[in-house]
Design brief:
Helices cover 64% and strands 15% of the residues. It is of the alpha+beta class and 436 residues long. It has a domain at 2-34 and 119-284 and 352-433: Outer membrane efflux proteins (OEP) (Up-down Bundle), CATH 1.20.1600. The protein has a four-stranded antiparallel β-sheet with strand order 2-5-7-8, with no helix packed on it. The longest helix is centred in the middle third of the chain and has 68 residues, at 118-185. It is elongated, with a radius of gyration of 41 Å.
Length: 436
């Protein structure tokens, strides 16, 4: 045991003490706070919320105000008047160097009281867009949590692999020390000593490569958490799989709450509202209007030197498309086709989700069975390693037999780690599909 601890201390300088220990809950919290996919989805939802609050404006009248001040200066303005027959012509009037001004201001109010129910459809559509934004945010959150969970447990998996390689390296180190001692005292051959050195270096190389896999896994999780890829941290969790997920319960949750399915349903509903909005253009549009206008003219040239007016106008207007090149008909047809497309996409997604659910659940059950089997195999393989090493130490077994037993133990432990990780990935996918 002292030898094993010595080798672990010398060969693992990357295992830094005192680094941050990150739990899965902390990782999820950081991701929901800083992951850019979630932040973008939340901002898009804010836009949809703002649009929905303003949608009531479609039902309200519009008001506008105008102001106009117009001035002109006559550098030269001579007005000749036509005289009556038989009478002398009047003298021309010179209005040069005179100024004219015209001032108008007023306000108008226009209220659309009927547009083929288009305003009601538009209001309903904005509400659907708002709900779509909420669904997008939920989908981003669910996908982010699933991605962070998978990346987190990948780190746990890589750490467990390192522990398996450490155990193999410790055994190889003990074998190397024993072969060296035997060679030095003349009871062992140099060939056995060199073979032990090669196997030790091979195990050390495998461990170094595995450490690189762990660093890459940390980088991947840091990216999902929206922080520097070089941020160092450790995880202490083990992979614990929930053993009793029920397929029927999961299926019910998928078709009730899966965010992607809800997005597809919203898209289909929006396509229907778009078609109805186009069809509303076939109906007349009726507006009520009223307004006030004040005008004031001051002319130094002309017959009317001053004029002032206050006018109130009101009335009703109606308009309807009689013919516009069949554009409304064409757009309505295209909108209907898009509606059919959205329906087909929805049904395709239902089949895809059910297929994904069945596949993930089968992977989940198979991985759980493999965990049980490989755990038994690992217990046997570890006993074989202990027996083989003792036989090798006593000179009863060869180095080749010890190496083969050692490889089997490492392979068995790797299969167990893979089975646990695959079971956890299947569990995460099942919970993601069911929005849990």
């Amino acid at each position: 045991m002292q030898f094993q601890l010595k080798f672990l201390f010398l060969l693992l300088p990357g295992m830094v003490l005192g680094q941050e220990t990150l739990t899965l809950q902390q990782a999820v919290s950081l991701a929901l706070e800083k992951n850019y996919a979630v932040r973008i989805a939340q901002k898009n939802q804010q836009i949809a919320d703002n649009d929905n609050r303003l949608a009531m404006a479609n039902f309200l009248p519009t008001a506008s105000a105008t102001f106009n001040q117009n001035n002109n200066y006559n550098l030269k303005f001579v007005q000749a008047l036509r005289g009556n027959p038989g009478q002398p012509l009047p003298e021309p009037r010179d209005f040069s160097n005179t100024r004219n001004s015209n001032l108008t201001y007023g306000a108008t109010v226009n209220w659309t009281v009927f547009d083929g129910l288009g305003m009601f459809i538009a209001f309903e559509r904005v509400a659907e867009v708002q709900a779509l934004g909420a669904d997008n945010t939920r989908a981003a959150i669910v996908n982010t949590v699933a991605g962070v969970s998978s990346a987190y447990y990948n780190i746990v998996q890589q750490k467990e692999r390192i522990e398996a390689f450490q155990s193999a390296l410790a055994i190889s180190g003990q074998r190397l020390e024993l072969a060296k001692a035997q060679y030095e005292v003349g009871s062992g051959s140099k060939l056995n000593y060199l073979a032990a050195q090669v196997d030790f270096n091979a195990d050390k190389s495998a461990l170094l490569l595995q450490e690189q896999q762990l660093r890459n896994a940390r980088t991947n999780l840091n990216q999902l958490l929206g922080r520097s890829p070089s941020t160092n941290f450790d995880v202490r969790d083990t992979i614990i799989v929930t053993p009793d997920l029920n397929l029927d319960a999961l299926r019910g949750e998928v078709f009730r709450a899966n965010p992607n399915l809800q997005l597809a349903q919203r898209s289909r509903r929006l396509a229907e509202l778009d078609r109805r909005l186009i069809q509303s253009e076939r109906y007349p549009q009726i507006n009520l209007f009223t307004g006030y206008l004040h005008g004031n003219q001051n002319n130094q040239a002309g017959f009317l030197s001053r004029q002032s007016s206050d006018i109130i106008n009101y009335g009703v207007s109606a308009s309807v498309f009689l013919f516009n090149g069949f554009n409304i008909h064409r757009r309505a047809q295209n909108a209907r086709i898009i509606e059919y497309i959205r329906e087909d996409e929805l049904q395709s997604l239902r089949i895809e989700l059910e297929s994904g659910l069945e596949q993930s659940y089968n992977d989940y059950l198979n991985a759980i069975e493999l965990i049980k089997l490989e755990q038994e195999n690992l217990n046997i393989a570890r006993q074989n390693v202990e027996i083989a090493f003792e036989r090798y130490r006593l000179g009863v077994s060869t180095a080749l037999e010890l190496r083969e037993v050692q490889r089997n133990a490492v392979a068995t432990e790797s299969r167990l780690i893979d089975a646990a990780f695959n079971a956890k990935l299947a569990e995460i996918e099942l919970l993601r599909l069911s929005n849990r």
